């Protein structure tokens, strides 16, 4: 195992206290435990176990099309994947990676990496361009249909 750093996407208005910023830098240097590896030897209260949990949610959210999911549904997975009891803290303690949206009385966890402004960390799927062309064609055909249907 090696110390792999997670990509961070700080919010413009987010300012972390120096103590927390120092902890985050040390957290980034910790050994990376793959979400696919055996984790039974880890102390559930350690920072390395937290890095595994963060890696797990990072991997899981990156698999979803919208790169987001209801936090309640994500937390229900802790039994099946052997996640620690206080797994919800992963979203709150890592605001540079996850964004929590509180709309319509629902808390949604969103992977910030997927919505970066400058560079996309997640590759665009080739079908996305085909889909956009199809949508544009359908909109154009509506205009053509309306012009044909209306008498001059």
Automatic annotation (TrEMBL):
InterPro entries: PORR_domain (IPR021099), PORR_fam (IPR045040). Residues 4-142 form the PORR domain. It comes from the Eukaryota. Pfam families: PORR. GO terms for molecular function: RNA binding. PANTHER family: PROTEIN WHAT'S THIS FACTOR 1 HOMOLOG, CHLOROPLASTIC, PROTEIN WHAT'S THIS FACTOR 9, MITOCHONDRIAL. This is PORR domain-containing protein.
